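note to self: the first set is below, dont mix up w the second
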Amino acid sequence: MSTTDRSESTSPAGRSAGRVPLRDHVANSVRRYLGDLNGSGAENLYDIALRELEIPLFAEVLQHCDGNQSRAAEMLGIHRATLRRKLREYGLSA
């Protein structure tokens, strides 16, 4: 991620060239999920949310990188071994 990308994603307005920041999409999804609970409690919400974010994130980034795990890990800003471990954990490894 470039310095420009980083500052755009963390700017107070959080908007760049009409793009909605990822955090807004996440906030809307969490809000809908909590609304769907209809007053029921949720345990381990952090773990659930992290898993629900990581699975499509890894899948989409890998697809974007044509399956190249080294490029995907670099794009994600994580070590390739971490990506490989997470892919196995989520059943996404080839």
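second set (the one i keep forgetting abt)
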Amino acid sequence: MATPELLQRLEKRALIAEQLIDVLRNEVAELKKASESLGHSQLEAENEQLKQEVEEWKSRLVQLELSHGKTQVPLPAKNGRMTTAYLASVPPQTPPVEKPPTSEGATQDGDIASDNKGKKKEKKAKPATESKEKAGGKGAVTVEEPPVDVGRLDLRVGRIMTAKRHPDADALYVEEVDVGEDKPRTVVSGLVKFVPLEAMQNRLAVLLCNLKPAKMRGVTSEAMVMCASSPDKVEILDPPECSQPGDEIHVEGYPRVPDPVLNPKKKIFETVAPDLKTDMEGVATYKGSPFTVPGKGVVKAFTLFGVNVK
């Protein structure tokens, strides 16, 4: 038979177990709430980013329309304010010019004949006008997408302010980089095997700033450090010493029209990357044209010549 002491112990343990179960239930409920809140905030952030992209493309549309002589017509929006729709301008129709009668004795039959001719011309012109109206009313004007080249990349000078080892990945650094914006960007780079940690601190670099943010072992990376790369060596590209964070990288012959965010499905960077190389003097190039910071100089690798840039 169980002794009273043993029964007391069992009762105490049962009570403690019930308390632990209650605590765990509360923690699980809190975790569920926290995860739901996090998911909601992520959706809001994505929606805000999409809105910014829409506004960016709208502004590009305005510029293209104005450069091609298209008119801008303000239309009332749902909220009562005025919005702007961009419609293709239709050439004005020239009104028919009436010929003066050749003499006072112009007959009524001649007038009727001229009226009939005018009506026939109007009927012939009508289908063309209607087709233009139908085409204009179907939807927005198609915006021609810029060519896929280095001009679509948002390459900027940045300063790596701090760098540290990734807490969950031995081969990765986590950097805070000033790219000329209100706050620094977090960047994750796989450079541990090639660049010492002390060489990552407070240095200039070239950043690709319009990649879609992506998580790397739990840390969201908001840009990419551009490097000259060979199979056994990697070097961070060096902009001119007088460069400042936010300075834009230009390539002659390729107008700089970067996408707000590169669409991964279009594989723009993957298409451009094979033509990004250093020349035999270490200058970073696209199809042989150098990366430059206007008025300040070219972007170079220290020792890697004739290798890929990525």
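remember for set 2: The chain is about 30% helix and 25% strand.
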